[in-house]
Amino acid sequence: MSELLDAVGATGTAMEQAVATFMLHPETFGESIAAGYVNPLAGYVAGRGGVLGEASGGTVASVFAVFEPTALCAMWDEGVAVRGAAGAAQLYWDQTAGFGRKYLAGADGLDRIAALGEKVIAATPSAGLPLFAGWRAMPLADDAAARALQVMFVLRELRAAVHFNALCISGVTPIEAHMLNKGPQYAAMFGWPEPYADGADKRDEYAQIEQVTNRRMADLFAAALDPAEAAELARLSTAALESLKAAVPG
Q1: What is the DSSP string of 2-44?
Q2: Domain ranges of the chain
């Protein structure tokens, strides 16, 4: 089990960083502005949350979980006003594919990343995982680089949803989680105003959230992949991240 946990952790880290590179890159923001989103963060919120349909901002904020709700609601309302929820999601999906084609094409094993990742996606029950369920239903691109990054995107949403579920029943607040994870700059990026509760007395609880998340992800991987496949996905995902970082301009 320890080897599987290691593989799941490495895969999750690589995919989180690869997809975050796409989400936070100036080119992605520029494409969103060109598509009519004056505030590119509104394009991000509407794009990522668009698979939830024409929901209220409060509903979307509850699913995003770790964003300051009032700011998230405002960005959702601004974003869906541009081209609706479904239109925003489709644009974001196309942007994901385009980023993969441009910056991931030089990586090895992209077909295997997609194939192994799709096995996990198909085998995972979607109950309690709304963003994962929504993105799983989106059609994948046919070409390897675009498809691989889209599969990474869906798996990132899976791990995020599992993590949010663990967080929400833990007693650790979102702002405490941010402070225990990456600190005040990260908290500010998610819209939270100062002063920040540092959560120092909840370090053990936060560590347990990570353990619960990793154990559940290991269960999901074990239901779809054998140990060799899980190790392969970890290795290829880690290498793909390095290839992406080398290709993407700073």
Answers
A1: HHHHHHHHHHHHHHHHHHHHHHH-HHHHHHHHHTT-SSHHHHH
A2: 2-245
DSSP string, 48-82: HHGGG-S--HHHHHHHH-SS-HHHHHHHHHHHHHH
**117 is written with which tokens?**
């990742």
Rounded Cα distance between 220 and 218, Å, is 5
Q: Counting runs of H as helices and runs of E as strands, what totals does the chain give?
A: 12, 0
**DSSP assignment, residue 182?**
T
φ, ψ for residue 137, nearest 5 deg: -80, -10
CA-based max dimension of the chain? 48
- DSSP label at 186? H
Written as one string, the DSSP assignment of 187-215 is: HHHTTPPSS----GGGHHHHHHHHHHHHH
Q: Is residue 14 a contact partner of residue 156, using CB atoms and an 8 Å limit?
A: no
List the chain pLDDT tens, one digit each, 250 residues.
789 999 999 999 999 999 999 999 999 999 999 999 999 999 999 999 999 999 999 999 999 999 999 999 999 999 999 999 999 999 999 999 999 999 999 999 999 999 999 999 999 999 999 999 999 999 999 999 999 999 999 999 999 999 999 999 999 999 999 999 889 988 898 899 999 988 889 999 999 999 999 999 999 999 999 999 999 999 999 999 999 999 998 7
The Cα–Cα gap between 157 and 150 comes to 11
Question: What is d(CA 95, CA 89) in angstroms, rounded to the nearest whole number?
Answer: 10
Rounded CA-CA distance 216/219 in Å is: 5
Nearest by Cα to 54 from 26, 74, 83, 29:
83
